Here is the input.
Amino acid sequence: MTPNLHLWLIPALPLIGAAVNGLLGKRFSRQTVVAVALLFSGAAFAMALWIASQFSSLQAPVIETLAAWLHAGDFQADFAFYLDQLSLVMLLVVTGVGFLIHIYSVGYMWEEGGFYRFFAYLNLFMFFMLTLVLASNYLLMFVGWEGVGLASYLLVGFWFTKDSAASAGKKAFIVNRIGDFGFLIALFLMIQHFGSLNFVEVSQHVTPMGAEIGGAGLLTAIGLLLMVGAAGKSAQIPLYVWLPDAMEGPTPVSALIHAATMVTAGVYMVSRSHVIFERAPMALTVVAIIGTLTALFAATIGMCQTDIKKVLAYSTVSQLGYMFIACGVGAFSAGIFHLMTHAFFKGLLFLAAGSVIHAVGGEQDMRRMGGLRTKIPWTFWTMTAGTFAIAGFPPLAGFFSKDAILWQAYSSPYGNWVYWAIGVFTAFITSFYMFRQWFLTFFGEYRGEDANHSQQPRAGAPAPHGHGGVHESPAVMLAPLVILALLSVCGGWIGSERFDKFLSPVFHAEVTAGSTTGATAPAEPRNENSSETLFTGISVSAALLGFLLAWRLYHRRPELPQKIAGSLGGFYEAVLNKYWVDEIYATVFVKPLIDGSTKLLWHGVDRDVIDATLDNSAEGAREVSDAVRHMQSGNIRSYAGWVAAGAAAVIFYMVWTGSR
Amino acid sequence: MVPISYYLILSGILFACGVTGFLIKRNIITIFMSIELMLNGVNLSFVAFAAEWKMLSGQIFVFFVMVVAAAETAVGLAIIIAVFRTRETLNVDQVNLLKL
Here is the structure.
């Protein structure tokens, strides 16, 4: 008998924080708001740590039903929480990174208006995200899924008076709706065919089913639809367009929601549905192809971005692509491993970028930075850790997880050398653009204007510390940076094999003889140590190559990139303009939709049919009444005349019909 | 015996006189009298049929009509007096407050 863990408290705590700050925060001082927000998010983190410490003694998975929710016939969905190795990892990542980012936000947002609102939203996000990862059925997961979308919308549009922020929020929300449509249809299919949405019951239904080799059946359909949902939430092709725009939100939000946690929900969902995907090879292939293409595509766009946050945004899209490669080759634990390390180093990179932006007074264009290394040493060193980690230099976190993915992409039964080759090439590009950013930001000469004049006008209120020049961020912002930097360095030392073993009860337990080999176990016979070392060497040299190229182009010969860009011509144009994807979407989908709604639905149907019917019948009634009201003359003799005429007409009719 | 058609023709003439008077006269009293004339035209046809077919119901109906006509006359005259008191006229063309 497992002890009652009160799992429901974990999501409930941030919800209380959100409610307190959201409803009463307007009257609170900033200190009180911070105290409430940190208390409740910190309590959730502490709770997660406590559960982690108890975990080894638990009989995983732990299912805790809080209350009945929907009971309709045989269908049943409860407010129930599900704790296994996978949700534990997600729990720790979400609460841990979330808590650190809460702390960071205190420093970053201190001068901003709507301070309490920001923390209420942040806590609300934590609530939904924790609901998502702890849910024991797809429906409750969907609640969290939609909730994080809402929180994301609110936070992207946090500076709602800025038009670009408001429309970025809307874009994020609408693009996500397209993905949610797929997710929802997948849920309907599950209800129809399995009669349940509980993870356990769905898994019991699916497990005896054979793999749909060489054809597409129910499981493939469910898998593909789930992938549509995941592509929306996790910003994969073709639904990735919202994520770069979402950088309009405050930087801590970009770090928490659009890098570390929410966007990984798709990866989590796909991993959670691994029983389905493992039996639908075609769906897996689609997942892997989407992941591969996204990784490459977004990385190339990242090369040409000049906004420090946009680079990181495209980098996030690209790294999420890696996670989907891992899922697509059935190496779910490698994907989750990369999810975890990515949460560390990408959270770190975003926070450090926020610190840089803070230091130079709101400037986000890297072309107007440079030489910041000595001015903001803490930010520099932590960002260095993050940059080397994402580039995949050993022994930092990114190296281990990326290497695990690349190795699985080649060696797993679903793997293919094409995935691997593109993955390595992407690793090279990743390393290049990250070091490009690093060199542009921290090395060379400071290219910004005189910092006295570049004071950030956004806040309105003058900065309390009245800084003149480039300055280091306060300790409250640096502490999370340092912790995340340590995690980025050490986070990978767990090793993908140990991580895989930890997650194996989730991913390997139910695979039966009826199915294909299912997910790969790293300890399986294909453990060719020498070739694995070779692959590691190749990916590390790709990272090194990216570093050297960036060093040569952006440090040694800063005039070279212009020339190369000029010689590349059309391709450079395409990459610089993000392959015109936004424009293509605008022409192909948005404009026809708006035109169709305006001309056909609004003008054609609503105005000319529905409104016209109503208007014309009213007008007709008015005209008829206008004509008829003159009978109401008030003259008794005219009334009598009408009566007589009517009576005569009736008699005439009766006589006429009677005579026939 | 006088054939029934004579009675009916007389009844029709009486009724037509009543209708014509109702439509063309302006004095309320005259209009009222025209109404009575119409009622009596109808009464005549009732009794004519009752005599023709030896059925009592037609004659009973005439009594009812007379009672109602008497009641109506009482109410109608009261209204006429009330109208005359407030408007000091008996011309119906000037009693047209309901006109739009």
In short: Residues 8 and 45 of chain B are 6 Å apart (CA to CA). Chain B has three helices and no strands. The first helix of chain B runs from residue 4 to 24.
